[in-house]
Amino acid sequence: MSRLTDTHSHENYMQDLSKATELLAEKIAEGDSSEINELIDSIKDTRDKGLYNEIGKLTRALHDAISEFHIDAYLDDSDKKEMSTISDATDRLSYVMNLTDSAANRTMDMVEASLPIAQEIGTETDTLKKEWQRLGNRETSYEEFGSLYKNMGDFLEANETRVNSLQENLTNILMAQDYQDLTGQVIKRVMTLVQDVETSLVSLVKLAGNLEAVTGIDAGEESQKSTPALEEMGIFPTKNEEFVDGQDDVDDLLSSLGF
Amino acid sequence: MNILIVDDFSTMRRIIKNLLRDLGFTNTEEADDGSTALPILQKGGIDFLVTDWNMPKMTGIDLLKAVRADASLEGLPILMVTAEAKREQIIEAAQAGVNGYVVKPFTAAVLEEKIEKIFERVDAG
Questions:
Q1: pLDDT tens for residues B56-91?
Q2: Domain total in chain B
Q3: For residue A150, is pLDDT > 90?
């Protein structure tokens, strides 16, 4: 990845400027007005060229940082070339938002489905416990005992279904947490982009500081924002022949390979 | 049955560990990438390997290849559980000798089905 670490041309530029200013001081002392004007023009040209040069480098570095955003440390060169689908950082963060939103909703759906089951079990347990205590105290009539026996049977049978539902809901809550892995991978890549952009911006601030010191003017250049095409990673698949579309596709592919 | 779960995200290791426990597999070990997994495997005593693909240092595919290249581990059943969904990656894993491939996000039922299938084949073989 290219970064603004090469200060060689900037040093040259500073040397040119300092030579020209020394000469200018001499010519002012001599009072040679035509030479003075020529030197001022040449200083201005040098400054403009240096500025455009550095801004050009910055633009390239930012562009490289953004376009290499998709590349993972673990991918080799051949993998890099073969990623082809277009997306951008905003899409990636939208993907993170959608996944966290869906995980939160899946979790809450399961909690909402489980709470009434727990309440039912609680209410029925209270009723049966009272009847059970009366049985223990020998306060239960024969008819009441028949009804208790039936209620207890119904309760145990209903609990089988309830326990299955609760287990299923808890497993679904567990599975909903997979968003942390999937979004974590996307966020890691966005972090790398942010670091690269930060490095480039620090270089721009340094350049601006140097220019101000030499020229005594504000470096108020407005940077143009571009939205360059980015290549996509496997974690963030859209409809694409290169990627399988879900587990069924994986199974089909594997069975075609003799699995 | 000792199972080694390899994934760089601890939440995913925890999810897989819980699902395996529901399926009756209570003896699990964990590693956060191939380079920490390989010594555990070489030490012996692991009967089944569940690994992610995309991990720092040593990836799952490199781990798979290293396991198949090791005479003492070449028969170890390996299930890949990964977000890598490129066809050529699945083909690469198959050619390297993976026993099953599950793409994330996955369901508990899919994991169960793939594990059962692997053991059916291991038992038949």
A1: 999 999 999 999 999 999 899 999 999 888 999 999
A2: 1
A3: yes
Please name which of B66, B22, B68, B60 lies closest in space to residue A234, comparing C-alpha atoms.
B60
What is the model's pTM? 0.60
Helix/strand/coil (H/E/C) assignment for every residue in B56-116: CCCCHHHHHHHHHHCCCCCCCCEEEEECCCEHHHHHHHHHHCCCEEEECCCCHHHHHHHHH
Helix (H, G, I), strand (E, B) or coil at B48: strand
Place of tokens 């496997």: A234
Question: What pLDDT does residue A152 have?
Answer: 95
**Which residues in A lie closer than 8 A to residue B17 (C-beta atoms)?**
none
Under a CB-based contact definition with an 8 Å cutoff, are residues B116 and B24 in contact?
no
Cβ pair B108:A175 closer than 8 A: yes
B26 lies in which domain range?
2-124
Under 8 Å between Cβ of B101 and A254: yes
| Test mutation, B16, B53, B54, B107, chain A, max A CBs within 10 A | B54
> Are the beta carbons of B104 and A181 separated by less than 8 Å?
yes
CATH for B56:
3.40.50.2300
Predicted-assembly ipTM surpassing the 0.85 threshold = no
Interface list for A 3-42 with B (CB within 8 A): none
**Cis amide bond preceding B105, omega within 30:** yes
To the nearest whole Å, the CA of A249 is away from the closest chain B CA by 9
